[in-house]
Amino acid sequence: MTASTPSPTFTAAQPLSGECLPCWEAVTDAAQAEARQRQGALLPALERWNHPLVSHAELEQFAADAFSRITGSAVDVRTVRRWIRDALERDAGRRDWSRPEIFLRRNPPLRPKHRAELSADEQSFAALFDIITLGFACPGKLSPDEEARFWRVAWEEYQVLITGGTAPKRAKAELLAFVLRHANWLTQGSKNALRMMVARQFQKFSQAQPGVSSSADAALDGRNSKRGVSTAQPIPAEDIEKIIGYALFDCGARLAQARRQLLRLGPETGISSATLDLLDAGKSKSYVNRRVAQQVQPQLKALAPYRLGKQAIDDATPTLHRDYSALRSMQIVNADDYTMPVYFYLPDGKGWFELTRGQVLLFIDVRSLKIITWALIPSRNYTALNIRSAMNTVCLEQGRPDVWYFERGIWQRSNLVKNRAPKSWRLAHESQAATEHGWEKLGVRFIHAIRARTKPAELVGGLLQNLMEGCKGYCGRNEREDCPEETKKAKLAVEGRRDHPSKHFYSFDEWHAELGSRILAYNDEVQQGRILDGRSPNQAFEEFWPHDNPPVKFDPSCWHLCAHCVSEQKVSVDGIEFRLGNQRYHYNGDALESFRHRKARAYFDPEHPEILGVTDMAGKNPLFVTRAARTGFADSISEDDGQRVAYGDAVAGQKAQVGLARARYQSVKATFNRTFRKNIVDRETASLGRDLLDKRNEAMEQSTEDTRRRARTTKLARSVGVATATIDLESPETEQALRRRADRRRELENEQAAEPGTP
C-alpha cells in the first residue's frame, strides 16, 4: 500500500469473516503476550492512521520497525499491513486501541481445559486432548518430537474408533473436527490443510513396519532424522592429522594461515589431492572449507595449550569447585606474595630517589577470606625471614592454624618457614617435651599448591587491587597494557629529576598507611559470592570462629618454643658475626665486652633480626645487643646531617666495643705500682731541677692555653663570617672583639624573630 493508493475503509462492526474472536481470558498466555507486543508496535501507527500528512506506507514501515525493536525479530510490511487491517476490522470504528484482544492472531490457541468439560462425542479423544492441553511446552510451536507424539496419539485414537465399529471416513471426520476445535493453531484454522496433514501422517503409520507404529518414528519428518548425517566422502584421518600439525606447530594454531601454507607446498605435504581441492575452494584468503574447519578447529583449540606450555595447560584444565561450608576460621591459612600496582619512592643512596612497587605478603583465612596479617617489603624480592615473621605474627594474634597453605619455591624450600633451624643453628627449646622441633610436631601441616588458581589468596589479591585504582602512582594490573598515561609521564619526570617524587607518588611510610587502610576497607566490604554469601570477611571470620575447639594461641611465655634459634658463637674483636642465606648479620656493643674472646650462646629471632639475645655457655647472664648498621664510605664528610649522625653512632659503638678493655687497662696500670731507688744529689742540683720542672709545667700550660685560644678565635671568626687570615689569632683582644660581635649578631636575630610578620 503506497501513498498514491488509498487504504480501503473498514467499517464492519463484526469480526473478520469466518472468525469467531475468543474471549481474552480464554486464550493462552503466549497468545496474550504476542498480542501485547503487536499492540505496542501498531498503536502509534493506528492513532495516526487517518492523519493527512502521513501516508499509510510510512506508518506501516514505522510499525514494522517498531515490532523489530520490541521483539528482536524482523517482520515484513505485508504482514504488518494484515495486522493493521485485522485490528481496524475488529475495532469496528470505535478507535479504542487500548483493548489488547483486537490484536490477537487469527485463531489463537486457547487455554487448556479439563477432559471432564468435553462433550460426549469428544470423550473418545480424551487422550489426545490431554496431549493438546498438557503435552506441549509452547502450543503453536511444536518441536519435531512433540509433533510426532501428537500424531501417534491421534493415530491410536483413530484406530480405537475403527475397532469399535465406527466407519473410517466418519472416524477421520470426527478427528478433524476435534483438532480444529481444540488445536486450530496447528494449521492456522485451515480445514483443508489439516485434512491433507492427517492423510499424510496416517499414510506413514499405515505403511510402517510392525512395531514401528507403536513409536513416534513413523511420524517424524525424514529431514529431521537425516539432519547432521554427512553424505559427503569423509576426509582421511591422515590428512586431518597433517593439517592439525602444520597449523599447530608452524602457524600458531591459525587454520587459515595453515591452509595457505599447505596450498603453496602442494603434494609435498603428503595430503591427498581430494583434500587439497577442498582447501583450494574459495577465493578469500581467510576462507576454510566448512567440513575441514568442523573437524580441525575443535582439535586445534584443544591442543594449542599443550604447545604453549604449563601455564596455558593450567588455564585449559577444568575448574574444580570446592566446598567451603565445612571449614572454620583459622583452620587453614593461605598466603601469597603480590607486586601491587602502585609505585612508591625510596632514597637511592645517591642523593635522589628510586621508584619501586616492592612486595606485599598477604596471609588470609581461607574460610572467611579475611586478611589477617600483611607485610610490605620495599625491595624487589622478599626473604624467608619476611615469611616467618608474618607467620609468627599470625600465631601471636590469631592462634596456631591447622594447615599452612602455601605455594612452592622459597615457601617450600626454606628451613626458616618450616621451623627447621638453619645450618650450624638449632632450635632454642629448653624442655624435653619441646625437643620435637618443627611445625609438624606442633600439629600443623603444610600444603603446597601446584597451580596458582588453587590458592584463595589469588582471589583476595585481585579484590584488594580493585580498591587501588584511585591511588597515586597506580600503574595498572598489566603495566605494559593498562598503565595510565599520567603515571607514565610522572615516572619520566621523577627519573629525569624534573619533579620531586612526592608530587606524584607515595613515600614508603605513606604507602604503608594507605595500603593498611585499603586492607581494612576490603575486610569490611560485603561480598555476594558463594563463599561469603552476603557477609564481609570480618563478619564471616567472627561467625565461623570455632568456639567449641578454638586454635592454640602462643603467648610470650612459650613463644621461644618455635620462634628462636640458638647457636654457639665466638665473640671476636668485631663482636658476633654470622650469615643466614645471603644475609650478613653483625652485632656489637659495649654489652658484649664481657664476652670478648669467649664463646657465648646467641639467640636469634627471625621476626626481630635487629636484636640478638646472648647468654654465657651455661645460659646465664642474658643480655641483648643491636645489629650494627652499615655506613657509607663518605658519611663522615657528607653534607647530610643524618648520614653524619649515623656515622657518629657507628663510631661510638666501635669505641664502646673496646671501652671496657681500655678502662680495665687503666685500672691495671694504676694498681700495678713499681718501686725504684731514690736519686741522691746535692742541694743546689736538686733546687735547679725543681726550678726547671716548674718552668716546664708553666710553659706547657701556656702552650695549651694558646692552642685553646686559637681554636676559640677560629670558631668565632667562622661564625661571624670573618676570614682567619685577616686577624691575629694569638691576641686575646681579637677573641674578645669577635665574641662581642657574635653576641650582637645573636641579639639581632632574636629581635627579628620576635617581630610579627618577619619571614
Task: Pick out its properties.
alpha+beta, five-stranded mixed sheet, elongated, disordered N terminus
Summed up:
This protein has helices at residues 29-47, 56-71, 77-91, 126-134, 144-163, 168-182, 191-207, 222-226, 237-249, 255-265, 273-280, 290-308, 310-316, 384-397, 410-413, 456-465, 479-482, 485-495, 508-524, 537-543, 560-563, 641-671, 683-720, 732-754, and strands at 332-338, 344-347, 353-356, 359-365, 370-377, 403-406, 426-427, 445-448, 506-507, 565-570, 576-580, 583-588, 599-604, 611-615, 623-627. The chain has 759 residues and is α+β, with helices and mostly antiparallel strands.
Task: Tell me about this structure.
The chain has 759 residues and is of the alpha+beta class. The protein has helices spanning 29-47, 56-71, 77-91, 126-134, 144-163, 168-182, 191-207, 222-226, 237-249, 255-265, 273-280, 290-308, 310-316, 384-397, 410-413, 456-465, 479-482, 485-495, 508-524, 537-543, 560-563, 641-671, 683-720, 732-754, and strands spanning 332-338, 344-347, 353-356, 359-365, 370-377, 403-406, 426-427, 445-448, 506-507, 565-570, 576-580, 583-588, 599-604, 611-615, 623-627. A 7-stranded antiparallel β-sheet has the order 7-10-13-14-15-12-11. It has a 5-stranded mixed β-sheet with strand order 5-4-1-6-8, with helices on both faces. It has a 3-stranded mixed β-sheet with strand order 3-2-9. Helix 9 (237-249) crosses helix 12 (290-308) and helix 23 runs parallel beside helix 24 (732-754). The longest helix has 38 residues, at 683-720. Mean pLDDT is 79; it is low at 1-14, 212-216, 430-437, 556-563 and 658-669.
